[in-house]
Amino acid sequence: MTQPPALIIIDMQQGMQSATLPPRNNPTAEGMIARLHAAWRVAGYPIVSVRHISRSPASVFAPGQSGVEFQPRFHPMVHEHVVEKNVPDAFIHTGLERWLHARGITHLVIVGVSTNNSVEATARTAGNLGFSTIVVSDATFTFDKTDFGGTHRSAEDVHLMALANLHGEYAEVMSSDDVLRRYAMGIA
After folding, report:
1. Tens digits of per-residue pLDDT, 98-113?
2. Rounded Cα–Cα distance for residues 97 and 100 (Å)
3. How far is it, in rounded angstroms, from Cα 109 to Cα 127?
4. Which numeric CATH code is attached to 6-182?
5. Where are the domains of the chain?
């Protein structure tokens, strides 16, 4: 590994705290994301904050809505890279791949929301593009969903299936403790 891994924080926006969203899993995810975020900052490793900008004017993620703003604890610093996306995948029409290659970054650690949507889409593309990718299981979360057959699935079931879809094929799924150990950042 020539360059340190980039921490990719996906869609940690105020709209993700909306009371209108379905029930979610992993209520400690924000704490784990904050822990990794702080460790990356202390180490001086690259951080990319991804923000979803909806094309639908009715969305809480539409420009001009408070939901589009980063949650205060995840607000990027001036020198940290921000990617704005209009689809779940943070690589599509954003310049993220070019930004990473220009800096020689080949290893990515992905956290955020939703495990089965933006996290999974971004991790699949990262793996397909040849990046060594880790998805952090306890620093991601998702929401209840009804499957195509009409069966209600809990957020935890959706989360675990999304992680299973990724692990070993597109990414390695690890806990935040294991990520901190791997990159010798200590356990905060």
Report:
1. 999 999 999 999 999 9
2. 5
3. 12
4. 3.40.50.850
5. 6-182
